[in-house]
Amino acid sequence: MPRDLTQLQLLTELEPVVADNLDRHLATAKDWNPHDYVPWDEGRNFAALGGEDWEPGQSRLSQVAKIAMITNLLTEDNLPSYHRTISEHFSSDGAWGTWVGRWTAEENRHAIAMRDYLIVTRGVDPVALENDRMVHMTRGVHAPDDFHGVLDQVAYVTIQELATRISHRATGRVCGDPIADNMLARIATDENLHMIFYRNVAGAAFDLAPDQMMESVTKIIKSFAMPGAGMPNWRRNGVLMVKHGIYDLRQHLDEVLNPVLRKWNVFGRNDFTARGERSREELGVYMEKLGRDVVRFEEQRARILAREAAKAEGRDPVQV
Asked: What residues does Fe cation 1 bind to (predicted)?
């Protein structure tokens, strides 16, 4: 029976893959400037500088767009926690360290652009936004107790980056503003490139330590939660975003999990021992259950939306 590789062995063996994918990323990624995506001519002073403070009528965003923008921005704001977690599981040296620094710098642009846009256009209450930022960053983000090592990390961030890409794109579409849509499309492109980097490293990890990686993927998928979990009003805001298709269970299954698992050939591999096979079977059972849950979720959402539409039109919702 093959023995497990230590974290040091995994980091050492995977470093050439990291270096190759770092070079690919740097050759592919396009530099961009957050200030180019903000309509600065809409900006004006707030009361502290003799202007006018925010009031709800100044925002052009729908309630769904506001909540999605705030949720996405606060998620990006917790970058220090993510940097710390990734650094702890990867390395600050060599190609690993270069990637962590580059990834952090690119992610920071997302929060800069989104916040500047929201403040300049007065899309949301800036005081409430700042209060929520303080709360969310003070709490920080902490990995679950059973989250250990580089394999868990690359499995998680592959899924998380793809999920974040989808959330940003959907948010851009509901904003009703081509400037916001263009900005969030630019951010989503970054997230997609990050996902490809992590997905490729995870794929190499499957070849290097198939049983260990299979166990990590199964654990991460079964316990997956977006990094924004725990922010103020997370549950209430999340329900509204799910209801309006910003990021829901169907997207999670069809646009995130299934494509990634196919890319890794998880259900077609033949290099697992009995240990890896058990973990793959466990994941297969979970995915089947998730598929059934998606159908129930969509049926329930359709009923809720139909009742709301009937109520808005003055019809009897019981007949819907």
From this structure: 76, 107, 110, 191
